[in-house]
Specification:
mainly alpha; Hyaluronidase domain-like; two-stranded antiparallel sheet; disordered C terminus
Length: about 130
């Protein structure tokens, strides 16, 4: 059931329905092992960042973007996810959050950064989307 929600959330994210992606990904993440939980929480927060920006709430979005960066760096410092663990992946998410912070600081648009991101679900270390 968790994978169903992850796939659904990836579809929502890719359709720029960030609130719905956030809500779908929230299903069951607290039951995951600690490192996987931290990674999924970062993906949930990426969706929340863009949702907040859509609402015009830049200050909380900036704070959350920093939290995403910290979480993703923490996952990497701890050795990353095991190759066998399923995951939600947004390639380039950390770099996008850094670019987003820079763009917002300069008063530039964030929409182009968001439009370049695509979410997917990966299984067992396979890098192709939705593969088993």
């Amino acid at each position: 059931m968790l994978i169903f929600h992850w796939r659904q959330g990836a579809d929502f994210f890719n359709e720029k329905k960030y609130w719905h992606a956030h809500e779908a990904w929230e299903q069951g993440w607290k039951t995951l092992p600690p490192l996987q939980k931290l990674h999924v929480q970062a993906m949930i927060q990426v969706a929340a960042v863009f949702h907040l920006l859509n609402l015009g709430r830049q200050r909380p979005a900036v704070s959350l973007a920093r939290s995403v960066i910290e979480k993703l760096e923490s996952v990497e410092r701890q050795g990353g996810l095991a190759p066998t663990e399923a995951r939600i992946v947004i390639p380039g998410a950390e770099g996008a959050m850094l670019s987003l912070l820079e763009a917002l600081e300069k008063g530039e648009s964030w929409q182009e950064i968001a439009s370049g991101l695509r979410a997917q679900v990966q299984f067992g270390g396979d890098s192709s989307p939705g593969s088993c």
